[in-house]
From TrEMBL:
InterPro entries: 4pyrrol_Mease (IPR000878), 4pyrrol_Methylase_sf (IPR035996), 4pyrrole_Mease_sub1 (IPR014777), 4pyrrole_Mease_sub2 (IPR014776), rRNA_ssu_MeTfrase_I (IPR008189). Signal peptide: none annotated. The lineage of its organism: Bacteria, Pseudomonadati, Myxococcota, Myxococcia, Myxococcales. It is found in: Cytoplasm. Its EC number is 2.1.1.198. This is Ribosomal RNA small subunit methyltransferase I. Residues 3-204 form the Tetrapyrrole methylase domain. PANTHER family: RIBOSOMAL RNA SMALL SUBUNIT METHYLTRANSFERASE I (PTHR46111:SF1). It catalyses: cytidine(1402) in 16S rRNA + S-adenosyl-L-methionine = 2'-O-methylcytidine(1402) in 16S rRNA + S-adenosyl-L-homocysteine + H(+). Pfam families: TP_methylase (PF00590).
Length: 245
């Protein structure tokens, strides 16, 4: 039976590729890759010839499963890599892993970098219980709904965001959740890594001009036992409407 290796790759610093990941990538004859060009760069770094690359883009993961499953059915070893970090975490991969299970293949995870966990542990906020939101919906009802759900959760919140949208999202979080303690983790593991702590409003002000590069936000959870009573400083809909006006 075939084997699917779920391989975490660096989120910036190539030194974070684990020896085990390197060994598996050198050995497999096929890699399912979110973006084949990015994965080619990783093989260039390894100084290894690239194996057969099978595209598994986020926008059409289901439609591209066929060739990967065919190799697993033939008893081959296939590695799954996304552009950065752990496959399946706000990245393609989950559908392939589910299909691999269904097809009777062996699934072997190779742990490694993940921006959510890296930002969480650097934030100093409680890490005993946390919720990875991934990206918030960009606007409208979906965004308001997601924020309303986050407001209730008695767990530290981890949110992915693009640098230029960071100030807007920090302000929306402050309006919806209250001015909670938070952290901004920017360009983790890279040359210009920056970690900043403060309340959501302080951070919104500090990054008012935008934050360059990749950003992960960490926000304190609802105080345990009081989420329902904790008043938002202004009704969420008003805040969102004000920003969209
Ligand atoms: N699967 C990835 C992981 O395990 O970290 C996450 C992929 S998601 C498409 C990309 C988002 O992760 C970015 O928009 C940013 O929010 C966060 N991210 C990735 N690399 C980062 C870094 N070096 N520093 C801070 N955040 C990062």
């Amino acid at each position: 039976r075939g084997t699917l290796y779920v391989v975490a790759t660096p989120i910036g610093n190539l030194g974070d590729l684990t020896p085990r990941a390197a060994e598996v990538l050198r050995r497999v004859r096929a890699v399912a890759a979110e973006d084949t060009r990015r994965t080619l760069q990783l093989f260039a770094h390894l100084g290894a010839p690239a194996p057969q690359l099978l595209a598994l883009p986020a926008f059409d993961e289901r439609g591209r499963l066929g060739p990967v499953l065919a190799r697993l059915a033939a008893g081959e070893e296939v590695a799954l890599c996304t552009d950065a970090g752990t496959p399946g975490v706000s990245d393609p991969g989950q559908q392939l892993v589910a299909a691999a299970w269904e097809a009777g293949a062996r699934v072997v995870p190779l742990p490694g970098p993940c921006a959510a966990v890296t930002a969480l542990v650097a934030s100093g906020l409680p890490s005993d219980r946390f919720f990875v939101q991934g990206f918030l919906p960009r606007k409208g009802g979906g965004r308001a709904e997601a924020l309303a759900l986050l407001r209730q959760l008695p767990a530290t919140l981890v949110i992915y965001e693009a640098g230029n949208r960071t100030p807007e999202t920090l302000s929306d979080l402050a309006a919806a959740l209250g001015d909670r303690p938070a952290a901004v983790a920017r360009e983790l593991t890279k040359l210009h890594e920056e970690l900043a702590r403060g309340t959501l409003r302080e951070l919104a002000e500090r990054f008012a001009a935008g934050a360059r590069g990749e950003v992960t936000l960490v926000v304190a959870g609802a105080a345990q036992g009081t989420p329902a009573e904790e008043p938002a400083p202004e009704p969420l809909e008003d805040a969102l409407r004000r920003r969209m006006a």
